[in-house]
Design brief:
382 residues, alpha/beta, 15 helices, 21% strand, globular
Length: 382
Amino acid sequence: MAGIYIHIPFCKQACYYCDFHFSISLKKKDALIQALVKELELRKSELENQSIETIYFGGGTPSLLTNSELQLLIDSVYQNYRVIENPEITLEANPDDLSNKRINDLRNTRINRLSIGVQSFFEDDLKSMNRAHNAKEAKSCLQEATQHFDNITIDLIYGIPSMSMEKWNKNLEMAFDLGINHISSYALTVEPKTALDTFIKKGTYPPIDENLALQHFNHLVEKTTEQGFVHYEISNFGKPNCFSKHNTSYWQGKPYIGIGPSAHSFAKTQRSWNVANNSKYIQSIQDDRLPNTVETLSVKDQYNEYIMTGLRTIWGVSLYRIETEFGVEFLQYLKTTSEKFTNKKLLEITSFSGSPRLSVLKTTQKGKFLVDGIASELFILN
């Protein structure tokens, strides 16, 4: 099984914290859509022995595309790839694009999952992030969308300096009250060369408080657990049977191809990424050239990749898989380097039914917030 990610690099305006590739000009939209169609055709041999189980429209803001434009891209996938009977097809959307009519129109397409970038239900938070929608649109679009789509996820950002615990709790309660069955939640981070980075350096925006972010994270875990969500990946919380199949495939190391400028692809021993420039991307595809850089992953790279992704999930890192796929030396290295974290109760080794083959290395609740730093210390660097 494999997945296809399609990057739509357009936005109405730039969020202050975002470092993804996008343009606020739609002048090249038609040419880019045609290039996406052609790239799908050019790369069909990469997954000719795989069945496509997920299609994901990310960005940018994919909901800026019309339904007919989205349908054209979906049809191109079906024409060039072997797609399973009921694939998960996700559209990332902003609340201001989801009018009642648009939602009703979308339910008549093959799209069966919406990922809605709410971020916060409070007006001051949205303005501080330069989001294109307002609080009223965030609530009203979800009230309508939940009437027509069973599979909806929303994004929420925590760790905003002005966000009290009371306000954060109200954000969560609003999501619960609306019947949302999946939440992706991330700490506000400062990426280099973003507007937020500039504001903080100039002193016009308060610095990020990691202690506040940790408090928000712990509250998020507590409240979602009470509501029956499963914390299946560090930033993702889903009701049973509502996990993101597409994102889960990333964490479980399944192959996928990324279509569009800046999109990444993965195939176990190889990783590649497209040029992050709309004009160069379009021209290259028009010339029948794939505008990508390809990296072959060494055994150590593959090991590090598995450590990073495995520790972020409830499935953890299988010690048996480490031994069988990478060797006894890798297993011994992992046990040795992880010992200081198990001693600090940041990691733990659990086994099921007493079988060594089912032993996994996982983060404890205490270690979840620190997982990226922990994983990096378990990497093999030379």
